[in-house]
Amino acid sequence: MPQILKRVDTQSLVVFVKQQGGLALVSAVAATSLLYYLFHSTTHAAHVVESVRKRGISKRKLLTRPEEKYASLKVEKRFVNPFEEWTEIPFYKTALFWMGRWKGNGIPSCEKELDKTLPVMKPDLNRIKTSNAVTFTWFGQSTCLMTLDGLTILSDPVFSKCSINDYLGPKRLRPIPCQLEDFIDTVDIVVVSHDHFDHLDEAAVHKLGNSVVWYIPLGLKNWFLKRGIQNVIELDWWQEVTHENRPDVVISCVPAMHWSGSRTPFEKNNTLWCSYVIKSKSDKIFFCGDTGYSPELFKAIGDRYAPITLAAIPIGSFMPTKLMQHLHMGPEDAIKAHYDLGCPRLSVGIHWGTFMMSDEHYLAPRQVLERVWETYQAERQDNEMQSMNYVKDTKFTTTAFGQTVILD
User: According to CATH, what is the number of the domain 111-407?
Assistant: First the structure.
C-alpha cells in the first residue's frame, strides 16, 4: 500500500510539473508576443511621426522669418523638433545606455578632493537683494538666481538631494549652496524650461507657490493648476509678454532643441520645451534650457536679441556623443552658440557637475570649456582683427556653486 501511494504521488507530481511548465511556457510566449507587438507598433508610430516631422521641416525651408521657420510644431498632438539637426533615438538604445550607466565618471570618494575641484560658496544674498545691477548665482544643474533691474529671477528650480526628489535618481555631487527658504521672499519671477525632474522640482514649486509669477512653456499649465498654482503664464516659442506692472521688462520664450515628459509613463512631448530672454531697458539675460546645438537657431536668437549682457548656457551631459548631441550641448557647441548669440558680455556654463547622467568625466565640461575657449579666442582675434569686427569685451566661464557674479 505505501508503494502504491508513493507511485501515485510521483505521477501527480509529474502531471503538476508538466501543467506548471505548460503555463509558464504559455505565459512566456504571451509576454514575448505582447512585447513584440508593442515594440513594432511603437516603432511604426515613431516612424510615422518622424516622416511627418521631416515633411514639416521641408515645407519651412523657404521661409525667411525665424518666427515662422522655427515655430513650435506638433504631430499627432505631441510637440516635435523643427530642426534638421534633431535625431530621434529609439527607446531601446536609451534603455541600454541607462542599464550600463554605472561608470563612476571619475568622481573621487574623498570629500576633501571634491571641495577642491567643485567648491561650494555661500551666495552673497545681501548684495543680491540690494543690487540694481545684473547678478548671477549658480545653485547647480540649471538652477540660477539672477537679478535684472530690481527684479529677482529664479530658473528651473531644483533643490532636491537627488535628480528626481530627495530619495530617487542620481545623487547631487555637492551640497546646495543655501536653502530656498533663505531667499524665497525676494524671488519675483520663475522661468521653467521644461518638465524634466532635474529642471522642475515639485517640492520647490509648492514652496514658491503663487508668491511668484511662473513663466512656463505650452502645455505645462495644467500640471501647475493641479497643484494649486494659478499664477502661471504659458508661452509659445517667440511669444513675448511684459511682466506684471513692469512694462519695461519683457519675458521672451525662444526655441530649444530638446524633448519633454518622463514624469509619468507615456507622456513624452505633450508639453513644450524652451529657453528665455529676459530684457529690461538697459540689459538682457539669456537663460538657455536643455538643448542640442543648431547654428541657425542660435543665430536667429542672436539677430533678434543681441546685445546680451548675461547668458546661462548648458555645457554638460554630452557623452556619449551619438546619444546626447541632439539633446545637450558640450562645451565646444556651447562656445559656438555664444558666438552665434552675438558674444554676450558674460556667458556662464551651467548644467554640469551636479547630477551625473552621462558618460563624461565629472570635470570635463569645465576643463574642455577652458581649453577650447582659449583656442577660439586666439583664432577669432586673429581673424576678426583683420576684418575690424573683433569683440574684446566678451567672456565664457564657469563659477563655483553659490558664487555670486555682479556685472556692474
Answer: 3.60.15.10
